[in-house]
Amino acid sequence: MSKNLTALVEVALFAALAMVLSFIPDFMGWFNPSFGAIPLVLISLRRGSKYGLLAGLIWGLLHFVLGKVYYLSFAQVVIEYILAFLAMGLAGYLAPSFQRALKEKGERTQALGLAFLAAILAVFVRYLIHYIAGVIFWSSYAPEGMSAYWYSFTVNGTAGGLTLLVVLIVLGILVPTSPRFFLPNK
């Protein structure tokens, strides 16, 4: 199988896994972590930004196919289900440096730091997009007397922080124990 085809199959599998993880029941209401972010950061660090962005796009589009879209307006849907999910692929921009550090035995701490930085970048940008959408589109859901800015910050900030926490925990386990996962042969 060609390198490109192998990578595309991996992208499809990781996007599908992200979607499956999106079906974990909401146990904290709007404040739930997005477990689907985990496979998106992993594929981005494994295959780079091009494939990470593609996986994010597929994950976002799968929400439409499976009826998991909260629709307020066309612009809101594009922002929250296309742009926000694409943002997860930004982790892949650090993949070359991350993989170089992984290959150097003495640079494992640097590799872990780069993986964490990649996750922070992707999750921050995704939830910044959700924050902006929250202010613009979801402000009417804010409790009486609460500003749209604070409401969106508390909802999206909490969800983003919890998402980042679970992604960092997984990276903290996988990078030291399974570095070869991030270094594909094909």
Please specify the SSE layout and strand pairing:
Elements: H1 3-21, H2 37-47, H3 49-65, H4 74-86, H5 95-103, H6 108-137, H7 148-177
Helix pairs in contact: 1-2, 1-3, 2-3, 2-5, 2-7, 3-4, 4-6, 5-6, 6-7
CATH architecture tag:
Orthogonal Bundle
Helix content: 55-70%
- How many domains make up the coordinates? 1
Number of strands: 0
Overall pLDDT = 93
Q: How would you classify the quaternary structure? A: single chain
Q: Treating each run of at least 4 consecutive H or I residues as one helix, how many helices?
A: 7
The global form is globular
How can the largest sheet be summarized?
none
- Helix-strand category: mainly alpha
Strand content: under 5%
Organism: Streptococcus acidominimus
Domain Major facilitator superfamily (MFS) profile: 1-186
Transmembrane segments: 7-24, 30-45, 52-72, 78-98, 110-129, 149-175
Protein name: Energy-coupled thiamine transporter ThiT
